[in-house]
Specification:
Elements: H1 2-28, H2 39-60, H3 65-68, H4 71-94, H5 99-134, E1 139-146, H6 147-156, E2 164-171, H7 180-196, E3 201-206, H8 208-211, H9 214-223, E4 227-232, H10 233-238, E5 255-256, H11 265-301, E6 307-313, E7 319-325, H12 348-356, H13 363-368, E8 373-375, H14 382-388, E9 404-406, H15 408-411, H16 421-436, H17 440-456
Parallel strand pairs: 1-2, 1-3, 3-4, 8-9
Antiparallel strand pairs: 4-5, 6-7
Helix pairs in contact: 1-2, 1-5, 2-4, 4-5, 7-9
Length: 462
C-alpha cells in the first residue's frame, strides 16, 4: 500500500511538472506561439492532460496490487499506459489547436515523458531490490509441512518476489508414529522458532497428521502470535484460485485463521493516517501545555519523574515503553500489581488523573511513534500477558493489532483492575469482537463513547 501510493504520487507530480516544463520550453524557443498558449489554454491543457492520465490508469489498472508487486508487470503496464495517454491526448489536442504547433508541442512532451518513464522505472529496480529490506517492507514467510506434501505448495508460491522471502520447515516423521502430545509439541517448537526470528506469517500444509490436531495446533500458534494460513494438502496438488488478499498470491486456496479487517494493509494504512493526524493535534495543542502544568503538580505532591514508563505488550507481543502521567508514589510493585480501590500508593493528583483518564494522555506520543493506536485492545503488563495467555484461550490473538489508548472493552465497562480471570476473559472477548468488526465508524463511535465516559467519570477508574 505504501509503495503503491509512493509510485502513484511520484508519477502524477512529475507528469505535471514535465507538462509545465514542456510548455515553457516550446514557447521560450519559439516552437509554439505565446498567443496560442494563453493562460486559459494552459489551464485547459492541464485539465485535459490529467483527465487523460486518470482514464488511462484506470483502464490499465497500472497501480493495482497484482501489477505493482512485480517489476515485469510494472514495465509492461507503464508502456501500455504511456501509449494510451499519448494516443488520447494527441487526438484531443489536434482537435483544438493548429496541427503544426500541436505536433511540435506533442513531440517534445512525449520525448520528456519517455525519458521520465525510462528513468523512473529503472529507479524502481533499486527500490524493489533494496528498499523492501531497508524499510521493513520485505516479509519473511514460513511454510511448514510434511515433506511428502510440501513440494506442491512451494511450487505455487511466486518466485523472485521483492517483498517476500519464502522459508520452509519440512518434517519427515511418519504420521502413525506420533502421539497427539508429540505432534503438538513438535509444532510448538516450530512456532517458537518462527516467532524468535520475528516472523508471524506462516503457511501450514494441512496434511492428515495436521488435520487430526488442528485445534491444538491453532492454540500453539496463538500463544506465539503466529498467524496461520492453512493450505490443504489435497488442493495443493490440484491448484485453484487464491482467497488470500493480504499475504501472497498463490495458485491454490488458502484458509486464514483469525482473519480480521485489520489484517488488510489498506485498512491498517487508513487507521495509521487517522492516528497520526489525531495524535499530532493532541501533542501540539494539548500536551504542549498540559505536560508542564500536570508535571509541576506531580513534582510538588511526590518526588520522582513526571512520566510513568512501563514495559507493555504491543503488536505481535513486542514490548514497548507505555507512557502515562505518574499517578502513584514511586514504588517497587508498579510492574506487577494493578491499582485497586483505596490504593494508598495513589497521590491526590493521581486520583484525579485516573478518574478522568487524563493519566493516559501521554500515550498519544506512543501513538505518534507507531507503537500504539488511538483505538485498540489495551496494552497489558508483561507479567499479565504471560499469566493470562496460559489461562484464556485465544488471549494472544488480541496482539495481532496495535494496542490502543481506549478500546471496545473499556467503553463497555471492562476497564481498570482485572482481579479475576473471568473479567479478563470478557475483556478479551470484546477485543476480539472489535478486531473482527473493525471499521472507521466503529473507531469513531468508541472515541465518542470514551469522551462521554471521561466527562461523567469512570466508576472503575481508581
Amino acid at each position: 500500500m505504501c509503495l503503491k501510493l509512493l509510485i502513484a504520487t511520484t508519477d502524477i507530480i512529475f507528469l505535471n511538472l514535465i507538462l509545465g516544463f514542456t510548455l515553457m520550453f516550446v514557447t521560450h524557443f519559439g516552437f509554439v506561439s505565446t498567443t496560442v498558449l494563453t493562460v486559459n489554454n494552459i489551464l485547459s491543457l492541464s485539465l485535459v492532460f490529467n483527465f487523460t492520465i486518470a482514464l488511462a490508469c484506470l483502464y490499465t489498472r497500472i497501480y493495482s496490487d497484482e501489477k505493482i508487486e512485480y517489476m515485469e508487470k510494472i514495465f509492461r503496464s507503464t508502456l501500455v499506459t504511456g501509449l494510451l495517454i499519448a494516443a488520447c491526448f494527441s487526438i484531443l489536442l489536434f482537435s483544438i489547436f493548429d496541427i503544426k504547433q500541436t505536433f511540435q508541442l506533442l513531440s517534445f512532451l512525449f520525448l520528456f515523458l519517455g525519458v521520465y518513464a525510462i528513468l523512473s522505472r529503472f529507479v524502481l529496480v533499486y527500490v524493489y531490490k533494496v528498499l523492501p529490506k531497508r524499510m521493513g517492507w520485505a516479509k519473511d514467510v514460513f511454510v511448514i509441512g510434511h515433506n511428502d506434501y510440501l513440494g506442491n505448495v512451494i511450487a505455487s508460491f511466486p518466485h523472485n518476489h521483492s517483498f517476500y522471502t519464502i522459508n520452509t520447515i519440512p518434517y519427515y516423521d511418519a504420521v502413525d508414529k506420533n502421539t497427539k502430545e508429540e505432534k503438538v509439541a513438535q509444532f510448538k517448537r516450530y512456532f517458537e522458532e518462527v516467532s524468535k526470528k520475528g516472523t508471524y506469517e506462516v503457511f501450514l500444509v494441512n496434511s492428515p497428521d495436521v488435520f487430526a490436531h488442528t485445534n491444538d495446533i491453532i492454540e500453539a500458534a496463538d500463544f506465539q502470535c503466529v498467524k496461520l494460513n492453512f493450505v490443504h494438502a489435497v488442493t495443493a496438488s490440484i491448484g485453484g484460485s487464491s482467497t488470500l488478499k493480504d499475504a501472497l498470491e498463490l495458485d491454490l486456496p488458502v484458509l486464514r485463521f483469525h482473519a480480521n479487517s485489520l489484517s488488510e494493509m489498506n485498512n491498517r494504512f487508513k487507521k495509521r493516517i487517522v492516528d497520526i493526524l489525531i495524535s499530532g493535534f493532541v501533542i501540539v495543542f494539548i500536551l504542549s501545555w498540559l505536560i508542564p502544568i500536570v508535571g509541576l503538580i506531580i513534582k510538588i505532591q511526590s518526588p520522582g519523574p513526571i512520566f510513568f514508563k512501563q514495559q507493555r505488550s504491543g503488536r505481535n507481543n513486542t514490548s514497548f515503553n507505555c507512557l502515562k502521567f505518574r499517578s502513584m508514589v514511586v514504588n517497587t510493585d508498579s510492574n506487577s500489581k494493578q491499582a485497586s480501590k483505596g490504593d494508598r500508593r495513589i497521590t491526590p493528583i493521581g486520583q484525579f488523573l485516573r478518574k478522568t483518564s487524563l493519566d493516559e494522555f501521554p500515550q498519544f506520543i506512543n501513538v505518534f511513534l507507531g507503537q500504539m493506536s488511538i483505538i485498540g485492545p489495551r496494552p497489558h503488563m508483561l507479567a499479565h500477558t504471560e499469566h493470562y495467555s496460559k489461562l484464556i484461550q485465544h488471549y494472544m490473538v488480541r496482539h495481532y493489532v496495535k494496542p490502543g489508548i481506549s478500546g471496545w472493552a473499556q467503553v463497555n465497562g471492562y476497564r481498570g483492575e482485572t482481579n479475576e480471570p473471568g473479567l479478563m476473559a470478557k475483556r478479551v472477548e470484546y477485543d476480539l469482537e472489535y478486531m473482527n468488526n473493525w471499521s472507521v465508524m466503529l473507531d469513531f463511535k468508541i472515541i465518542v463513547m470514551t469522551a462521554f465516559n471521561m466527562a461523567k467519570g469512570e466508576k472503575n477508574a481508581y
